[in-house]
Model the fold of this input.
Amino acid sequence: MEPVQNLESYCLPSSENIDNYSSDNSSQTTYPSVQTLDQYLTLESASTSNSFPCQNSPPALSFSSNNSPLSNLESNSYVLRPQHSLEIANGPPENDSYPILDFDELTHKIRELETAMLEPNADMLDIYGAIMPGEADSILLETEKWKEMMEMVSRGDLKEMLYTCAKAMAVKDMVITEWMMSESRKMVSVLGNPIQRLGAYIVESLVARMAASGSTIYKSLKCSEPTGNELLSYMHVLYEVCPYFKFGYMSANGAIAEALKDESEVHIIDFQISQGTQWVSLIQALARRPGGPPNIRISGVDDSFSSYARGGGLDIVGKRLSALAESCNVPFEFNAVRVPASQVQLKDLELRPYEAVAVNFAIMLHHVPDESVNGHNHRDRLLRLAKHLSPKVVTLVEQEFNTNNAPFLQRFVETMNYYLAVFDSIDAALPREHKERINVEQHCLAREVVNLIACEGEERVERHELLNKWRMRFTQAGFAPYPLNSVINSSIKDLLQTYHGHYSLEEKDGALFLGWKNQVLIASCAWR
Done:
């Protein structure tokens, strides 16, 4: 096969096209004015049945201007105070009246223990009572652990403090959990460096997990604060300042264009069409195809988050793509599939025997549950359904980290490392005081962090897998790899040169991996 020529035109709409495409009144689109960060988030959590016994309701969460959600803690009972606001304050909180431990007293006790363990004078040991053989080593280890944690707090190692908090929570050590929460919240800030900004949402997530209110907060982050138009504008900012979506769309479109280059009747099945942005450049490029454009039919599957952002159903996407195709003189038809991806059946796709089929799974399969969630393996069922369509190509774009079946602490580490790289990459593109950066991180990323850390079971919808696991699933469904054309790699390298920072691109085993510094973030591959 000949390589696809002028690949960039297949894959990447210009900023002008995207701007004009993103809303019905796009020519007048402006970002909302934010006077203070007080407006950003107020989350009132409803009471949950599985919260701590002495807690009447989970805490309300609100951001004001700078630091983390504050965890106001009862020093004796080690539970969250009921109905107390978690705020992000400007700088370290004043008059902090909720210390978990008296640190002067703690230091004094540690020194006394050290003296007791090291002093040969047996009278000193009487202070602590008789110590059986072996207990001394245990006490020394515990003392050393507390010393290390105090040193960690003293040097301000926020990442290690957050990990220590999660580790303590995993083993239900509430003393250390609440101490680390109390200390961490003094250091986080939505205006700070990447770990301070991410830390603000991680602290909130840990508080929500402890209060068993994760799902309530996640739903509030998704839906209650920004309007649909505002959310759409935040998504557009993320699309522009970071290459993650463009990388995914470019690699997938390149594979589709190559596989369908000789076809006159084309049916693209997109299992999460979102705003339809991916298909703008492909329609425009196919309009210029030698010999004329093919007849294009797109079946688009909806999801609730995209529907909320666009302010309506799939008809909005269909009308926009139809108008674009008409302006390019491309025969076009849109089939709206109005069911969640996990419920799509063969009849919903309205197959026609003379059409060449391409299936697109772009950053969506991790939202489809497998058998570990509720016994129904919709993830593998969708792949078998796709295979039954006899497609010319199936494209897969997914975030490259492992959270599907990982236990809490492993999932916490994966989440922190992954999103720290994302926040760091945003740091290279937008100033820290930029109001749209704060909106993007809060409304497009923080909800995912909260869901990954605070939620469990069916309520946890963010369930990522590594590409090796996806390969296993595709192979078991009967697919074979479809190597990406080398022109795609070259075009993506050109794309990355337009971005500042430390992005990396690696081609391995027929797949492409986009990373930031040492962290791989997105993987893209194709199958047939």
Summary: The CA atoms of residues 59 and 83 lie 5 Å apart. Confidence is low (pLDDT under 50) at residues 2-101, 120-128. The radius of gyration is 26 Å.
